[in-house]
Amino acid sequence: MDTLLMNGELETDANGYPIQIHGIDEAAQRAAIVLSIKKGSFIYDETLGSELDPAADESTPNDLIVMLCREALADQTSMTVEGVRTEREGNKIRLIASIVSGDEVKEAEVKINAQL
Question: In the chain, what are the domains?
């Protein structure tokens, strides 16, 4: 179980209590967090994160982005990566990973280029 994050902040219900998530929602949120964090930057777990370069642009090969995404999520035991795709608009890259947890599938989306 985890707490729902929305735009980096805890999401609360009508009574002000944090909203709890589990299952596929938790797995997708965890995937998005792992892909958003630079590997080695989290002091409590330096293996957490990815090698995705926030400065990636239109010259960055899709194969490299997909490989780095799969590599970053390989140690996440609560999920498997079913597929990864990128959507590009000039310099802007959006990474969409299809995450499987149990018998459910959900997409986790990460903006690689901070200008997106």
Answer: 2-111 (3.10.450.40)
pTM above 0.70, yes or no: yes
φ and ψ at residue 107, rounded to 5 degrees = -95, 135
- The whole-angstrom separation of Cα 91 and Cα 81 is 25
Instruction: Write the pLDDT tens digit of every residue in 16-61.
Output: 999 999 999 999 999 999 998 899 998 999 988 998 877 677 778 8
Q: Are 24 and 1 in contact (CB under 8 A)?
A: no
Closest by alpha carbon to 59, among 36, 84, 91, 35? 91
pLDDT per position as a tens digit, 104-113 = 999 999 988 6
Q: Quick one: CA torsion of 57, 41, 7, 105, rounded to 10 degrees?
A: 80
Burial of residue 2, with CB atoms counted within 10 A of its CB: 0-12 exposed, 13-18 middle, 19 or more buried? middle
